[in-house]
Amino acid sequence: MTLRVGIALFLIITSILCLVGYLGGISYSDLMPRTFSIKDAPVEPQQKSSGLVINLPPIIAPVDDGERYYYVQANLAVEIDRPATGTVIRDRHDTIDRYIMEMLHNYPIRDLRTPGQSVTLRDDLKRTVNKLLPQGQVRNVYITSWLITPIGY
Q1: Helices and strands (DSSP H and E) totals, the chain
Q2: Is 41 helix (H, G, I), strand (E, B) or coil?
Q3: What's the mean per-residue pLDDT of the chain?
Q4: Do 106 and 67 fall within a single domain?
Q5: Does the residue 45 lie in any domain?
Q6: What is the DSSP string of 130-145?
Q7: Distance CA 73, CA 59 (A)
Q8: What mean pLDDT do residues 90-101 have?
Q9: The CATH number of the domain where 129 resides is what?
Q10: How far from each other are the two terminal CA atoms of the chain, in whole angstroms?
Q11: Which residue has the higher pLDDT, 25 or 28?
Protein backbone atom coordinates (compact mmCIF):
# COMPACT_ATOMS: atom_id res chain seq x y z
CA MET A 1 0.00 0.00 0.00
CA THR A 2 1.45 3.30 -1.02
CA LEU A 3 1.58 6.42 1.07
CA ARG A 4 -1.09 8.14 -1.05
CA VAL A 5 -3.55 5.26 -0.61
CA GLY A 6 -2.89 5.19 3.15
CA ILE A 7 -3.52 8.93 3.53
CA ALA A 8 -6.66 8.74 1.37
CA LEU A 9 -7.98 5.82 3.42
CA PHE A 10 -7.25 7.68 6.65
CA LEU A 11 -9.11 10.80 5.44
CA ILE A 12 -12.11 8.76 4.27
CA ILE A 13 -12.41 6.92 7.60
CA THR A 14 -12.00 10.16 9.54
CA SER A 15 -14.68 11.85 7.44
CA ILE A 16 -17.10 8.97 7.96
CA LEU A 17 -16.54 8.98 11.72
CA CYS A 18 -17.07 12.75 11.92
CA LEU A 19 -20.24 12.53 9.84
CA VAL A 20 -21.64 9.68 11.96
CA GLY A 21 -20.79 11.56 15.15
CA TYR A 22 -22.44 14.75 13.90
CA LEU A 23 -25.58 12.96 12.70
CA GLY A 24 -25.72 10.97 15.94
CA GLY A 25 -25.59 14.23 17.88
CA ILE A 26 -28.49 15.67 15.89
CA SER A 27 -30.61 12.53 16.13
CA TYR A 28 -29.96 11.85 19.80
CA SER A 29 -29.66 15.25 21.40
CA ASP A 30 -29.78 13.80 24.90
CA LEU A 31 -26.35 12.24 24.39
CA MET A 32 -24.58 15.56 24.41
CA PRO A 33 -26.20 18.87 25.33
CA ARG A 34 -25.63 21.69 22.86
CA THR A 35 -24.93 24.33 25.47
CA PHE A 36 -23.07 23.93 28.71
CA SER A 37 -24.06 25.99 31.69
CA ILE A 38 -23.52 25.70 35.39
CA LYS A 39 -26.75 26.01 37.31
CA ASP A 40 -27.45 25.51 40.96
CA ALA A 41 -29.61 22.49 41.54
CA PRO A 42 -32.88 23.39 43.21
CA VAL A 43 -32.94 22.39 46.85
CA GLU A 44 -35.69 19.89 47.51
CA PRO A 45 -37.92 20.69 50.47
CA GLN A 46 -36.80 17.67 52.51
CA GLN A 47 -33.12 18.58 52.13
CA LYS A 48 -31.52 20.92 54.60
CA SER A 49 -28.54 23.01 53.74
CA SER A 50 -25.45 21.40 55.18
CA GLY A 51 -23.71 23.08 58.04
CA LEU A 52 -20.09 23.25 58.97
CA VAL A 53 -18.42 19.83 59.21
CA ILE A 54 -15.39 19.30 61.45
CA ASN A 55 -13.33 16.17 61.97
CA LEU A 56 -12.83 14.79 65.45
CA PRO A 57 -9.51 13.18 66.42
CA PRO A 58 -9.39 9.40 65.98
CA ILE A 59 -10.98 7.46 68.83
CA ILE A 60 -9.75 4.04 69.92
CA ALA A 61 -12.02 2.24 72.37
CA PRO A 62 -11.64 -1.19 73.94
CA VAL A 63 -14.67 -3.46 73.63
CA ASP A 64 -15.25 -6.76 75.44
CA ASP A 65 -17.86 -9.29 74.29
CA GLY A 66 -17.22 -11.71 77.16
CA GLU A 67 -15.05 -14.03 75.10
CA ARG A 68 -12.63 -11.73 73.37
CA TYR A 69 -11.30 -8.20 73.52
CA TYR A 70 -11.47 -5.84 70.56
CA TYR A 71 -10.27 -2.38 69.72
CA VAL A 72 -12.66 -0.16 67.80
CA GLN A 73 -10.92 2.64 65.94
CA ALA A 74 -13.27 5.28 64.61
CA ASN A 75 -12.72 8.52 62.76
CA LEU A 76 -15.75 10.75 63.07
CA ALA A 77 -16.85 14.02 61.51
CA VAL A 78 -19.64 16.11 63.00
CA GLU A 79 -21.92 18.56 61.24
CA ILE A 80 -22.53 21.54 63.50
CA ASP A 81 -25.01 24.37 63.38
CA ARG A 82 -22.61 27.30 63.78
CA PRO A 83 -18.86 27.99 64.04
CA ALA A 84 -19.03 28.72 67.78
CA THR A 85 -20.04 25.11 68.38
CA GLY A 86 -16.82 24.02 66.69
CA THR A 87 -14.80 26.07 69.17
CA VAL A 88 -16.59 24.44 72.09
CA ILE A 89 -15.99 20.97 70.61
CA ARG A 90 -12.27 21.71 70.16
CA ASP A 91 -12.00 22.99 73.74
CA ARG A 92 -13.76 19.92 75.16
CA HIS A 93 -12.45 17.25 72.82
CA ASP A 94 -10.86 15.26 75.68
CA THR A 95 -14.20 14.98 77.47
CA ILE A 96 -16.07 14.23 74.25
CA ASP A 97 -13.53 11.51 73.35
CA ARG A 98 -13.88 9.93 76.80
CA TYR A 99 -17.68 9.85 76.59
CA ILE A 100 -17.60 8.37 73.08
CA MET A 101 -15.08 5.75 74.24
CA GLU A 102 -17.35 4.82 77.15
CA MET A 103 -20.36 4.61 74.84
CA LEU A 104 -18.48 2.35 72.40
CA HIS A 105 -17.13 0.24 75.27
CA ASN A 106 -20.68 -0.45 76.48
CA TYR A 107 -22.05 -1.15 72.98
CA PRO A 108 -22.57 -4.85 72.11
CA ILE A 109 -19.88 -6.01 69.68
CA ARG A 110 -22.44 -7.62 67.35
CA ASP A 111 -24.12 -4.22 66.93
CA LEU A 112 -20.77 -2.63 66.14
CA ARG A 113 -20.10 -5.28 63.51
CA THR A 114 -23.53 -5.13 61.85
CA PRO A 115 -23.54 -2.73 58.88
CA GLY A 116 -27.25 -1.90 59.24
CA GLN A 117 -26.81 -0.61 62.78
CA SER A 118 -24.84 2.45 61.68
CA VAL A 119 -27.93 4.72 61.79
CA THR A 120 -28.60 3.76 65.41
CA LEU A 121 -24.91 4.08 66.22
CA ARG A 122 -24.74 7.50 64.56
CA ASP A 123 -27.81 8.65 66.53
CA ASP A 124 -26.24 7.44 69.78
CA LEU A 125 -22.98 9.22 68.92
CA LYS A 126 -24.90 12.41 68.14
CA ARG A 127 -26.78 12.20 71.44
CA THR A 128 -23.53 11.60 73.34
CA VAL A 129 -21.85 14.67 71.86
CA ASN A 130 -24.94 16.87 72.16
CA LYS A 131 -25.35 16.22 75.87
CA LEU A 132 -21.87 17.70 76.43
CA LEU A 133 -22.56 20.94 74.56
CA PRO A 134 -24.13 23.84 76.47
CA GLN A 135 -25.11 25.81 73.36
CA GLY A 136 -25.34 24.77 69.78
CA GLN A 137 -26.04 21.31 68.56
CA VAL A 138 -24.50 18.66 66.39
CA ARG A 139 -26.81 18.07 63.43
CA ASN A 140 -25.28 14.84 62.19
CA VAL A 141 -22.39 12.48 62.80
CA TYR A 142 -20.48 10.89 59.93
CA ILE A 143 -18.32 7.80 60.40
CA THR A 144 -15.42 8.41 58.04
CA SER A 145 -13.34 5.39 59.06
CA TRP A 146 -14.22 2.30 61.08
CA LEU A 147 -11.98 -0.59 62.12
CA ILE A 148 -12.61 -3.42 64.59
CA THR A 149 -9.48 -5.34 65.57
CA PRO A 150 -9.53 -8.48 67.76
CA ILE A 151 -6.86 -8.67 70.45
CA GLY A 152 -5.38 -12.02 71.43
CA TYR A 153 -7.26 -15.21 72.21
Answers
A1: 5, 4
A2: coil
A3: 80
A4: yes
A5: no
A6: HTT-SSS-EEEEEEEE
A7: 6
A8: 90
A9: 3.30.479
A10: 74
A11: 25
Cβ proximity of 77 and 137 under 8 Å? no
Domain identity same for 89 and 19: no
- The domain tally of the chain equals 2
Is 42 among the domain residues?
no
Average pLDDT score over residue span 69-95:
88
**Do 78 and 13 belong together in one domain?**
no
Residue 69 has pLDDT above 80, yes or no: yes
Name the residue range of residue 75's domain.
52-151
What is the pTM for the complete model shown? 0.62
Dump pLDDT digits (tens) for 105-128.
888 888 888 766 677 888 899 999
Angle between helices 118-130 and 93-106 (to 10 degrees): 140
Q: Within a domain: residue 92?
A: yes
